[in-house]
Design goal:
Order of helices and strands: HEEHEEEEH
CATH class: Alpha Beta
Helix content: 10-25%
Number of helices: 3
CATH topology: TATA-Binding Protein
Radius of gyration: 14 Å
Structural class: alpha+beta
Shape: globular
Largest sheet: 6 strands, antiparallel
Distance between the termini: 40 Å
């Protein structure tokens, strides 16, 4: 059983150097990048400093920051029951005045809306009124 769970971890994606990677066709990914299709699109997060982004990620249970390089943050989050790994990338987009976000499952097809809800938790953590 342990080997099965380890095999389900998948590989960590590379840290993006520009725009965040597009979502695959499966419904287990959301993205705020302008080229995201309607099925995967979420609104960008408010523009924030990197320390605020780090704190927002770390406020979510089972999420941890893995790497920060320039204006890009990579975090991993584990699902509650089966401990699957999801990847979260945040990119400070100075030009647009927002923070672009991508949250995706490493394996599987459906995430039952977990990635979209995670983005909304990040939004609430970054918004003064919590909404």
């Amino acid at each position: 059983m342990l080997l099965f769970l380890l095999a389900c971890a998948g590989a960590s994606p590379p840290l993006p150097t520009g725009a965040l990677s597009p979502c695959p066709s499966s419904p287990n990914c959301v993205s705020s990048e302008p080229d995201a299709d309607e099925a995967h699109r979420v609104a960008p997060l408010p523009l924030a400093e990197m320390e605020a982004l780090r704190a927002a990620v770390e406020s979510i249970p089972r999420c941890r920051v893995e790497q920060i390089e320039g204006d890009v943050l990579h975090a991993t989050c584990r699902t509650l029951v089966l401990r699957f790994v999801d990847d979260v990338h945040l990119r400070i987009d100075h030009e647009a005045g927002t923070t672009q976000v991508r949250s995706a499952s490493r394996v599987g097809h459906s995430d039952l809306g977990v990635n979209g809800r995670r983005v909304e938790k990040l939004r609430a953590a970054l918004t003064p009124d919590g909404r």
